[in-house]
Amino acid sequence: MDDHPRPFRARANGLTLTGVEAGPADGPPVLLLHGFPEFSFGWRHQLPALARAGFRAVAPNLRGYDTSDKPTRVRDYRVEELAADVAGLADHLGGRAAVVGHDWGGIVAWFAAMRHPGRVSRLAVLNAPHPLAYLRELRRSSQLVRSWYAGFFQVPWLPERLIRANDYALARGTFRAGPCRNAARPAEDVETYVQALARPGALTASLNYYRAAFRRRSSDIRRLVRPVEVPTLLIWGERDRYLVPGLADELDAWVPRLRVERLPAATHWVQHDEPERVNELLVGFLSKPT
Predict the structure, then answer these.
(1) How far is the C-alpha of 3 from the C-alpha of 163, rounded, in Å?
(2) Cα–Cα distance list, 76 to 139, 171, 212, 287 (Å)
(3) Cα distance between residue 69 and residue 9, in whole Å
(4) What's the pLDDT at 53?
């Protein structure tokens, strides 16, 4: 079976979204949603494994990233629109798909399962908080301190200037930081990430995810939340420096069909830290009969 990535392109929710895919065109579809500041390249370790398991694995560039369309208004990056993009992608793939998301892609995945349950067959989330768990932990843990960068991103133009300074030195440092085994990422991988972030409009678009979210009242977010009824897998790297471990706890009331897998040695970048284990968990979960 050909597990090499090939280009992907689709119209969804009025936008053109690009990306890559692997696996048989008639295989069960799986959408892999990346986070900040990555793009579809962030799933390069998972695409071949899912393709070999018989899935049509699609890693789109979320709106604003790499070569996907980049709406200019902050409000265009509200979670309702992002979830509608996923529904549109599911329609493109036949009407229903399993959805896997990491970081911001995981947040989008949570809302897609809540807002468009008929389009999501299964849900897998990697180190991304359920929205109500996030609001809870902001009040009772150190999560507010860990989220300092999201507050900084609310400032107009200054974050973009700092990230672009010295040929994207800050971004390069983030991308270069190795996984938990202290193995630095290859230079060519870092350059690939920086080139995508440096595309016209991409950096501001990626920051607009945070701006759109933090300009909402918590009551607005609560009104958007629904129970997640589909089978759900939460994979959590416990050495996450951005998210407290408690975000993976006490979710049963909101996600009744939940299974949590904790990886004690993995960081926030769990699919890069332990790709073989993450692939094993994803293939096993997605292959299990409903």
Answers:
(1) 35
(2) 28, 24, 8, 35
(3) 11
(4) 97
CA distance linking residue 254 with residue 236, whole number of Å: 17
Catalytic residue among 102, 130, 210, 240: 210
β-pairing verdict for 120-126 and 6-12: unpaired
8-state DSSP, 48:
H
Rounded Cα distance, 48 and 262, in Å: 23
Whole-prediction pTM: 0.97
d(CA 140, CA 60): 35
Three-state SS at 260: strand
Q: What is the pLDDT of residue 179?
A: 57
Residue 93's nearest CA partner among 149, 32, 137 is 32
User: Which sequence spans correspond to the domains of the chain?
Assistant: 6-287
pLDDT attached to residue 289: 81
Known catalytic membership, residue 268: yes
Q: Which residue has the tokens 């030195």?
A: 169
Token pair 């977010």 in the structure block, residue: 221
Which among 34, 130, 268, 272 is annotated as catalytic? 268
251 CB neighbour count, 10 Å cutoff: 18
Q: What residue ranges of the chain have pLDDT lower than 70?
A: 1, 178-184, 290
SS3 labels along 72-125: CCHHHHCHHHHHHHHHHHHHHCCCCEEEEEECHHHHHHHHHHHHCHHHEEEEEE
**CATH class for the domain made up of 6-287:** alpha beta
Q: What is the pLDDT of residue 290?
A: 67
User: Catalytic site residue 76?
Assistant: no
Catalytic residue of the set 103, 116, 168, 272: 103
Strands (E), 107-183: 120-126
**Tokens 């992907």 sit at which residue?**
8
